[in-house]
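Lab notes, practical 5.
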Amino acid sequence: MSARPDGVVPRCTVLTFAEMRQRGEPISMVTAHDFSTAQAAEAAGVNAILVGDSLAMVVLGHPTTLQVTMDEMLHHARAVARGARRPLLIGDMPFMSYQADVADAVRNAGRYLQEGSMDAVKLEGGRAYAATAAAIVRAGIPVQGHVGLSPQRVKAMGGFKVQGQTALAALAVLDDAMALEEAGCFSIVLEGLPDRVATLITGRLRIPTIGIGAGSGTSGQVLVMHDLVGITARVPRFVKRYGAVGEALIDAIRAFKDDVTQRTFPGPEHVYPIDDGEYEAFLESVGERRPRATPIRRAR
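Output from the prediction step:
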């Protein structure tokens, strides 16, 4: 997203996504789950922030994304919204917030805008959820689709496995993407796909695609913040680390612990003073020091 002539970067919207695709300008998106990471993402100039259900794994310590709840997602969405104003803010619909009932899906999507201050929502699934996506769109809520590797279907897929590696499987993913476009999605995340398959799907769609583990032929890219800055210990093959924040964090905490152990922290520059007279009065008031004796004047 380019700055205006006055240097101000305008707020990104779903229309910005469409305009960037038309210009062939790549879209950058990262996840953020709190105020501080949202501030960092905005300062870096990304086009969009996804409050991803990866929150379950990288923040809450769950083994998959299945355990995070709608209320937990909203709690973190509100924090992100307080930290970033220019990127497009997208709330990830967690497991079972939209699968059981279309009315529940619309209601939960609306909560993201009403309670979480998000601009749009994202949901996983293709043709099976096209009608759900369409109902949410009809309610005036922008929807980003998600096809290919679907972390919320990890149990059904037998693990986090690359999708679309056979002709039939690739065709199924293309059909899923086309169905979501027809349902009115403003963009689609393509995850865990062969790069040539993702490139072809991108070319067939009129809306932008955001890749994660899908090669460079998509309209943009998204990565989980914890993966790209180097907080997580293990990362998928498709992740490129752009920092070593995890190591730096451990080093900083270890240095603090050593200073505390050696009593070199806090130093004189880290403490607050008190006037000597006030301190003497304080000591007297708590009985730590006897009051000063009044001098006895001797008769001459």
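Observations recorded by the TA: The first strand starts at residue 27 and ends at 31. The first helix runs from residue 14 to 23.
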